[in-house]
Write a structure and sequence with these properties.
This protein has eight helices and six strands. By secondary structure, the chain is an alpha+beta fold. The protein is elongated.
């Protein structure tokens, strides 16, 4: 007859059931932890600054095999592979502009090192990179406050294109205020301006485009941005007859130097 412990259970059977319960608890805890990590990554991913040529975030995450070749090939070693439990998807490369901006290597070694195309080989000129977009906090920017700074403009690799200066009269004195303006069509998102900003917390930051740029909608047609028969300047022929002068309505009197009553009622308040 087998020995029975307290409660009438065989000790071996009791140990087996205890281990099963412990295993189930560990598995459940692990599942909750993994689910938490996935949700954390999903929330953090849109804020990641990726290397030059990175595909759109979803496509990038699908194509990137976390090999680290881009980080190894980066001359200033600013690309970091995210560890487990971090704020970004595990093993993906990113950089922090405030501490280590992209130095705009002309040969773009990180793109050449990528074996999967997660960093698109179509990017052949670094000035065409769009890693993010610089955004200026005009309430804390020294230049916008009327002080002389313009460091972001001076340090910008595409000075005069990505960041230009808007000159305005200060009003209180004869000094001119030089306000930096970011041009989204030229900004590469390299982050050099954010690194150079002298304020305690940078007044210019690099953010993903979709977080800071809107879209007016395809149903708006900006006719002045392209030439059509309607938007081109109309130039009548030399022999075109002059436009006929407006005539007064029968029985009305036109005042000297005035207009006939009712001829411009929308603007003159007539009728």
């Amino acid at each position: 007859m087998s020995e029975q412990g307290p409660g009438g259970l065989n000790p071996n059977r009791r140990d087996f059931l205890v281990k099963m319960a412990q295993g189930a608890a560990i598995a459940g805890t692990g599942g909750l932890l993994w689910d938490h990590l996935l949700h954390q990554e999903a929330r953090a991913a849109p804020y990641a600054l990726r290397p030059p040529g990175a595909l759109p975030e979803n496509d990038f995450n699908a194509a990137c095999i976390k090999c680290g070749q881009c980080a190894v090939s980066c001359p200033p070693v600013i690309l970091k592979m995210e560890p487990a439990g971090g704020d970004l998807p595990i093993g993906t490369p990113s950089f922090v502009a405030r501490t280590g901006p992209c130095i705009m290597c002309p040969d773009i070694p990180c793109v050449k090192a990528c074996p999967t195309g997660a960093l698109s080989p179509k990017l052949t000129k670094i000035e065409n990179a769009r890693m993010g977009l610089a955004v200026i906090d005009i309430e804390n920017c020294l230049s916008w406050k009327g002080l002389r700074c313009e460091i972001c403009h001076r340090d910008c690799p595409l000075k005069g294109k990505a960041i230009t200066l808007q000159m305005e009269d200060r009003g209180l004195s004869r000094h001119t205020v030089f306000k930096p303006i970011v041009n989204s069509d030229s900004c590469t998102g390299c982050g050099i301006c954010e690194k150079a900003c002298p304020t305690q917390i940078s007044a210019i930051r690099i953010l993903p485009h979709h977080l800071v740029q809107g879209k007016i909608g395809d149903h708006y047609r900006l006719g002045w941005t392209f030439d059509t028969q309607i938007t081109q300047d109309f130039k009548p022929g030399a022999g075109a007859p002059p436009a006929a002068a407006p005539t007064a309505a029968p029985g009305s009197v036109v005042p000297p130097g005035g207009k006939a009553p009712g001829m411009d009622y929308l603007n003159s308040g007539g009728l």
